[in-house]
Design goal:
With about 400 residues, this protein is α+β, with helices and mostly antiparallel strands. Helices cover about 30% and strands about 40% of the residues. Strand 4 and strand 5 form a beta hairpin.
């Protein structure tokens, strides 16, 4: 009995080790966005992003593009001259287009180029067309350096420089080229979760959306384009009117980010159960140790404590022998066993397989939300308060 308890404690330590031993750290050292408007009103967007992978190894990246202010995105491509891409996937999740690409383990600066076509993003207001674009969204959790944005208005519109207005004016300039007028913007550093929004307006050439966002003021980032005095006063009044119901909603829904809303006998594997009962995918990390322990108890694995010598010391590690019956394994258990085969010890799996565990739990988390077993109440409550601020 003591032997099994000791092994279980070793498992728990192994899965906690990544947070102690190695943290993934990166920044974005350069972010260039090129938006070329076509005569039909669509945009061809090219994003060139340089990730500076400073600590740890990285094997995938994602780019989420909101769809709430556009009709659709097509012709998505991801390329890199620094690393061979293994897989590129594009899917719609909720109200976002999720672009995800994988590559071999990578450290140091790495540049990726994402290109895509956008339809239905042109606005119109007061006899003008507006290219109103969040060149960089708020989803990045790291600093972004050396931001450059270029917006091209086609020469086919026969406009003059006096016809075109750009915002933010102090960070942009307008030049004429053979392909049309180009508005260029630059900014040295964006803090995490800070958007960079640009607006280029000109006399109406095409029909466009008439949503309120077309008004050239008050960027979504809260810092990019300064609001007028009337907007500030209106925002204060709106905040006062909305503060009480927003706070009520916040305290009513506070607690875990996700709450269990239904459970009619879902497919409850141990990881799904951990996410359901704990309310977050991060809490499900401990489920991997439980699954390995369960597989050993069912006879699919044998866990052995073996002495490993390192320099003048010797430490005990847990090695795994595999003798599973494929007919008695769930798809998740098969994937876990296949992943375990790549490592000599459970400690090594705990240190180096964080991407596998995180991706697996994220998929479980998203599936449970889509299936209606979980609901994001915290996002709703924060959204009610945030909605009072213009």
């Amino acid at each position: 009995m003591r032997r099994w308890i000791f092994i279980f404690l070793l498992l728990l330590f192994a899965f906690a080790a990544p947070a102690l031993a190695q943290q993934k750290i990166y920044e974005i050292s350069n972010y260039d966005v090129e938006l070329v408007m076509r005569p039909d009103g669509s945009y061809r967007v090219t994003e060139t992003i340089t990730f500076d992978f400073q600590q740890g190894t990285f094997t995938f990246a994602t780019r989420n593009i909101p769809l709430d202010k556009i009709d659709r995105i097509t012709d998505v491509q991801v390329q890199s001259d620094d690393v061979a891409l293994r897989d590129v996937s594009v899917e719609v999740r909720g109200n976002e287009e999720l672009i995800r690409w994988t590559y071999p383990e990578r450290t140091g600066p790495t540049t990726f180029t994402i290109t895509y076509t956008v339809y239905g993003a042109l606005f119109e207001a007061d006899g003008k067309n507006l290219i109103d674009w969040d060149a960089i969204g708020t989803g990045w959790s790291v600093p972004i350096y050396d931001v450059d944005v270029r917006v091209t208005v086609p020469a086919a519109f026969n406009l003059t420089a006096a016809d075109i207005h750009i915002e933010p004016r102090d960070e942009g300039r307008l030049t004429e080229t053979s392909g049309g007028y180009v508005a260029s913007f630059s900014y040295p550093r964006l803090s995490p979760h800070t958007a960079y929004r640009v607006i280029v307006s000109f006399p109406r050439q095409l029909p466009g959306q008439t949503r309120s966002r077309a008004t050239p003021a008050g960027g979504r980032s809260g810092r990019r384009i300064a609001p007028t005095g009337e907007q500030v006063a209106g925002g204060v009044i709106a905040a006062l009117l909305g503060l009480i119901p927003g706070l009520i909603a916040f305290f009513r829904w506070r607690g875990p980010q996700l709450r269990l809303t239904a459970m009619d006998r879902p497919d409850v594997s141990l990881p799904r159960a951990a996410v359901l009962l704990n309310g977050t995918s991060a809490a499900g990390q401990r489920a991997f140790a439980a699954v390995v322990f369960d597989l050993a108890a069912r006879g699919h694995l044998t866990l052995r404590r073996v002495k490993h010598k390192t320099w003048i010391f010797s430490q005990k590690r847990v090695e795994v022998d595999f003798h599973e019956d494929p007919g008695d394994l769930s798809p998740f258990e098969r994937e876990l066993i296949d992943e375990l085969r790549d490592y000599e010890t459970l400690e090594e799996f705990g240190l180096r397989a964080s991407s596998f565990r995180s991706e697996t739990l994220k998929e479980i988390y998203n599936d449970l939300v889509e299936e209606g077993y979980l609901e994001n109440h915290m996002t709703r409550s924060i959204g009610l308060i945030a909605a009072t601020v213009p």
